[in-house]
């Protein structure tokens, strides 16, 4: 676990584009929506769309570099744990990408809401769940070098989008936050299990 | 100690037989060379031995798990960072003696993409040699190396098998005198 965390943090800190590229994409898309001057309610939709596109773009290359360099094959053949590899990737993204994106989104939208901590927590849950789902698409398309395959998993996100709309636009936290947590747990366990199996098959 | 034992091992990809009826035993303290032409299944056999493609008719020693160091066709390093950083982020020790032996000492701070094919291969081999693992699975370890490096590598191999390491390599270059050969015939 420590070895994987060290590698993933090392890669982010030694290659700065891994941090500033996602933040720039998010910032630019968000800025475009601000210039378009939507009303206040739609600014939450803007931040969702910006986050959705950002996570989609950064997840697209989640495994591609490690596959192309042979690191993934080496790791699997040496019998190392892929669960800790995925956990390390998630942790790095959560700390260095998702948290700054969340703070940025709320800095623009304002911290004036009544349930601000629940909303920030929901936003992080939303980004994490998107990350896991897009990782599945990334694992499927890793060998074919075609990121469009990742779009195949978008239908799985339709209930998730409805939940997100209820939480961030209608601000109805009960019971939607519970459902969102259930979605997160499902993606963190079952989807990651599927990703591990797909990575093994792809490396054969 | 027997690490692997196969009986009547066959392997197919998309209904195409890659190799068949393979019987051999692999023990520690020895070098094994898997030999055969292109497409004869050398890399596939290495992946079977690594446990990635586990087969029913292969006996795997129970101590093999997490004791394998694997080097495939690709080196497993990140191109955008330096050789030293590549070793540091995976927690591998930067063994100065080995770096010097393979002529890599002056390249430690160079970006990996600036190294030549042979230098990259030697770096990956240094990772394997300093890994402290007892079974080395190497896919064409001599590819891209100059004569001096090949001789150095052979010496290192001989030093390590005396320490109990088992080296299994796919190789279609010059044969090693001291190795046990496993021949694969291409099924046309």
Question: What report would you give on this structure?
Answer:
- The complex is a heterodimer of chains A (204) and B (188).
- By secondary structure, chain A is mostly helical.
- Chain A has helices spanning 2-14, 17-36, 42-60, 64-69, 71-77, 82-109, 116-141, 158-168, 176-203.
- Chain A starts with a helix and ends with a helix.
- By secondary structure, chain B is of the alpha/beta class.
- Chain B has a domain at 2-77 and 131-183: P-loop containing nucleotide triphosphate hydrolases (Rossmann fold, 3-Layer(aba) Sandwich), CATH 3.40.50.300.
- In chain B, 27% of the residues lie in helices and 27% in strands.
- Chain B is globular, with a radius of gyration of 17 Å.
- The termini of chain B are far apart.
- Chains A and B meet through helix 1, helix 4 and helix 5 of A and strand 5 and helix 2 of B.
Q: Name the biggest interface.
A: A-B, 23 and 28 residues
Can you give the mean pLDDT of chain A? 84
Helical residues, percent of chain B: 25-40%
Question: What percent of the residues of chain A sit in helical stretches (DSSP H or I)?
Answer: over 70%
- Report the major sheet of chain B: 5 strands, parallel
Gross morphology of chain B: globular
Oligomeric status: heterodimer
Poorly predicted spans of chain A: none
CATH architectural group of the domain at 2-77 and 131-183 in chain B: 3-Layer(aba) Sandwich
Shape of chain A: globular
Structural class from helices and strands of chain B?
A: alpha/beta
Kindly provide the radius of gyration of chain B, computed on alpha-carbon positions and rounded to a whole number of angstroms. 17 Å
Mean pLDDT of chain B: 85
Low-confidence stretches of chain B: none
> How many strands in all of chain A?
0
- Give the total of beta strands of chain B: 8
CA(first)-CA(last) distance of chain A:
24 Å
